[in-house]
Amino acid sequence: MIRDLQYYLDTFRVTPRLLEEITDLGMGNGALWCDLYFENNASFNLSLQDSIVSGCRITEDYGVGIRVLSGEKTGYAYSESTDVSSMKSAVKAASAITLGAPVKVTGRGIASGDGYVPRLYKGKPNTAADRYPVKESWRDISMEKFIPMMMKMEAMVRDREPRTAKVVVNLTHEMDDILMYNSFGELKYETRPMGTLMMNVVFSNGGEPYSFGASRSFRMGTEMFTDALTQELVDEILHNIDDRFNAIRPRGGEMNVVMGAGASGILLHEAMGHAFEADFNRKGQSIFHDSMGKKICEDNITIVDDGTLPFDRGSLNFDDEGVPAQRTEMVKDGILTSYLHDRISARHYGVSPTGNGRREDFRCSPLPRMRSTYMENGDSDPADIIASVKKGIYVDTFSNGQVKIGEGDFTFFVNSGYLIEDGHLTAPIKDINVIGNGPKALSDIVAVGNDARVDHGSWTCGKGQSVPVSCGIPTVLVSSLTVGGAQ
């Protein structure tokens, strides 16, 4: 959602001349760069448990973050007030942090024509290209409107499944006003919407209870809530419920693993995607730090980080440094072709930034972060992939993953899946971990399905800061992973 510039100037009580004055002050000690990040965030959370309102929270956050770069040193300070004296104090603090930094800079200039930024991004935000226009703002409607819808969702579950013991429905929304300005005169502004609907259900048939959750999250206004969306969530919650009650814990060991399309992309995000973020590579912490231009997996694999998907949770009109979002192919036909860059890492590598500079809020300095990360289609039919496996497992949802970025080692808990025996899905499975190494797992993918799908759940990525993301993948076959199951 992009409003007129005056709305943002009024919201933050600034003028174009004041923005210039603050950045000029940040450049006073010979800095390379100074940028300002203003934010006005309003969020609301409503929870229903068994048809009773169990929680209601309104949060407002407001302030400005100021960054100064000098040599290889970064100074960052923020203020929860945008009055002139507070901003001047913050910019002086950020500038003071960089005092004594070497004048010589490794790599290219922060915004020059020699490869780092081939052009400056001075253009006004284009409303015609807005990736998340809002029909009805969250700020313009009472949350009471959604209570009947949330209660209806619970009734739909209870009517279809008598083993339902407890239902929790959670609705969260936010509107985030953003204004950015930097010492090269780039001015960007927008309002980022986000709506998230989550449902968690506990089922019991007299024995051990079983719980399952589903969520949908989009950069949209209140118009995201439709009968189709609520029906989709309920159907996902109840899908194959009998199989979940009858699931077994299989024997563990090394075996073929087929990952289902969509939500399995979280393994791609965690075990592989982080290793493509440029700061890890710039510092030599990623296993891919010396692999640019090299073949790292089979020819039929292309991995993308995309900030341009309309209404997607991970999408942006421009990142938190004012760089327009783009579609970046990290791996193209098995070759590592790009890292994910913010302005600092792009300067180091002498390339253009990819629009991946992201921050949790105005209190945080931006870092290279993923947006919507997914693997593109291959040419295999998913049924043929399963039919090719003599013994293995099929998994479709993961949780509680742990990853070591440097080594790429990971472990993920499998929420649901099936044994594969002689090319057929047989017994449902539970309580297992999938263990492996990201780069090796990538190189061990031997079949890629033609059913790629981005999952629109409420994915949030942590890297010292939390940011919204999405992920996706087609059905893929990994020739060998360790499955931690029964002995």
Structure keywords:
six-stranded mixed beta sheet; 11 helices; 487 residues; alpha+beta; single chain
Task: Chart the SSEs and their pairings.
Elements: H1 5-12, H2 16-26, E1 33-49, E2 52-70, E3 73-79, H3 84-97, H4 147-160, E4 164-182, E5 187-203, E6 210-218, H5 227-238, H6 241-245, E7 253-259, H7 265-271, H8 278-282, E8 303-306, E9 327-332, E10 335-336, H9 343-349, E11 357-358, E12 367-368, E13 372-375, H10 382-387, E14 391-403, E15 409-421, E16 424-429, E17 432-437, H11 438-443, E18 445-448, E19 453-455, E20 460-462, E21 466-468, E22 470-473, E23 476-484
Detailed description of the structure:
- The chain is built from eleven helices and 23 strands.
- It is an alpha+beta fold and 487 residues long.
- The strands form five sheets. Strands 3-2-1-4-5-6 form a six-stranded antiparallel beta sheet. Strands 10-9-8-13-22-19 form a six-stranded mixed beta sheet.
- A hairpin with an 8-residue loop joins strand 11 and strand 12.
- It is globular and about 70 Å long.
- Mean pLDDT is 90; it is low at 102-118.
Q: What kind of sheet is the major sheet?
A: 6 strands, antiparallel
Q: Span from first to last CA?
A: 54 Å
Q: Order of strands across the widest beta sheet?
A: 3-2-1-4-5-6
The secondary structure category is: alpha+beta
Concise synopsis of the structure shown:
This protein has 11 helices and 23 strands. The protein has helices spanning 5-12, 16-26, 84-97, 147-160, 227-238, 241-245, 265-271, 278-282, 343-349, 382-387, 438-443; strands at residues 33-49, 52-70, 73-79, 164-182, 187-203, 210-218, 253-259, 303-306, 327-332, 335-336, 357-358, 367-368, 372-375, 391-403, 409-421, 424-429, 432-437, 445-448, 453-455, 460-462, 466-468, 470-473, 476-484. Helix content is 20%, strand content 37%.
